[in-house]
Amino acid sequence: METVKTISELRAARLILPQPVGLVPTMGYLHEGHLSLVRAARSECASVVVSIFVNPTQFGPTEDLASYPRDLLRDLQLLEKEGVNLVWSPDVEDMYPPGFQTWVTVEGVARPLEGSMRPGHFRGVATVVAKLFNAVQPQRAYFGQKDAQQAVVIRQMVRDLNFNLDVVVCPIVREPDGLAMSSRNTYLNPEERRAATVLYRSLSAARQAYQAGERDADRLRQIMAETIQSEPLARLQYVSCADADTLQEITGIVSGRALLSMAVFVGKTRLIDNFVIGEENHAPGN
Ligand code: PAF
To answer: Is the same domain home to 33 and 153?
Structure first.
């Protein structure tokens, strides 16, 4: 496994990789969720590139950029074991040199949900992912369904800007008690860690109601909100029942695929999670 830092080193190493190339963009501090993306890429591509970059432009001024967990050495050991060909871990100055002034802004699908709670977040994500795509030139790129809106935003960007690659979205990987894997789970103390299962319980309650015939979007949102509110350590930021493609909130009856999603503070830690309903078979990550 080769590791590189600068864009010119990356370009030189990329030139000799067997095709097709799969890219797994990450912010590091890898867990089984990331490794599931690497394994998917490994099984579908001749070579796998993993980028590790804590992208400052997708964090708001009051968010956790400074404290975001980092452990490059451990990440490299994990990736070596997975048979990754190339790891690219650029410095901030490589990605955003002085004078940087070009941004990618996705509009409609980036506005609701996370977009409304985290202004500028998807501008940072779309810009860095466009830069990763341009530098690595992968044939396939792998993202997790955990960040459901991010996946929709990136698909939209790929379509709109004619990136010549396939976006592959892999199921959420969960802990045995249902908590979706996330690097931010490490912020939780033991009591908060127990309370954090409320997101999964809340989504499961709404899905159960849907399976029992409930189709009223307001009622599904209410079931999720009430479950969250029953957990004293949790503070609900939003719950949503939205069209899974447009991400517009559903008013009235749920008829096609819908994204049930939420953001919840457990202590100071902000967690997100989602299920897709209305598919014939539920995705294994749900
Ligand atoms: O999902 C993430 O880890 C990040 O948003 C990404 C896609 C690597 C861009 O920084």
So the answer is: yes
